[in-house]
Amino acid sequence: MVWVRVVDIVSNHTRRQLLKATGIAGAAGITGLAGCSGGGSGSGNGPTSIGAGIASASTTTGQASNAFQRVVKEQSPDTEPAGTIQWASQETGGDPASLRQYNQGNLRAMGAGNFVMASAMQDAPPFSENPVESVPHQAFKIVSIHLHIVAVDGSGIETSDDLIGKNFWALPPSWGLRQQAETVFENAGMWEDLEPNVVDADIGDVAGAVEEGRVDALIAYGSGFDSLPGWATEVDARADLHVVQPSDQLQQGIEQTRGTNYREIDVYGWNQDMGADTVGTFPSDFQFFFGSDISRDVGYELAKISHENVDAIQESQSAYADHSDPEAMASAYLDDFPVHPGVYDFLEEQDVDLADYERGSVEA
């Protein structure tokens, strides 16, 4: 596949016009086009303010963004020539919503799952009916999470086949992870049977729903082989649970889903006996993504700050990827998807092999 740097060709066309003009289909047709308002770009015009979309402060990526925000605040006065950088996490309700806010000019960066970004590139759900015009550049990995199913003790649920007819919480509808879970179950031929009993609730309400008997099973996740998100620790504290093993049918659905694979791992994060030592999961990688209106110098300094201060970031979010190894920063990159030029240059200086990835462009 030949990559065309659409941002070098034109800046004011819609994504549809660009695809038509270049004759490119699929992933190669989108690059980071959006220019978001708020603050300078890091080119000598004062402080650079970056609104970064997160689903919620109690999610793993939200906690990671807030931890990064604190460290950027401490370190950015010393960055030259980028100047002072202000990173501000903004809750949107989910990474699909963050991407739409980015396209509306309300965000300049975001934490998002690779599944969501790949879906946007392909006009796949949740973007099939209302595609986005542009996507930001890849920056660096935040965390890998391991999605798995747990059930309430006494529910009679031991494997995923037992979920049919049970009240099942499949993550909030606004999340990209919810769409990923739906896709997994659709590929397994199970979603149509599960959907009538799916309970839609926000993460702030799920622990109460489990405790009150309104939810029999749920999708949860651990992060970085380290911990659970805040909402899951609340569920852990308020209910007796056990892990649910995926059936062969669900395992096949996982393997047929873009951006994930079936993986059996040791159970971790739960503060109770989960009834088994291992559990079948479908992992998902999350990254920070930077808009093309964030200058090369600012992107470079943000990557440098994360690399040099990862211990301080991990004090607040222990599952944050170990960026003391710069290879880890690039370990979740998607193919055919530009990397922010500042991050690209920093990683190249750290001898990370980026030959398979495109160096993105920024707005003048």
Automatic annotation (TrEMBL):
Q: Where is this region: Disordered?
A: 73-100
The superkingdom listed in its UniProt entry is Archaea
**What PANTHER family does the database record attribute to this sequence?**
SLL1037 PROTEIN
Alphabetical list of SUPFAM superfamilies matching this protein: Periplasmic binding protein-like II
Q: Which InterPro entries match?
A: TAT_signal_bac_arc, TRAP_TAXI
Q: What is the lineage of its organism?
A: Archaea, Methanobacteriati, Methanobacteriota, Stenosarchaea group, Halobacteria
Q: Which Pfam families match?
A: NMT1_3
Q: Which residues cross the membrane?
A: none
The protein, known as: TRAP transporter solute receptor, TAXI family
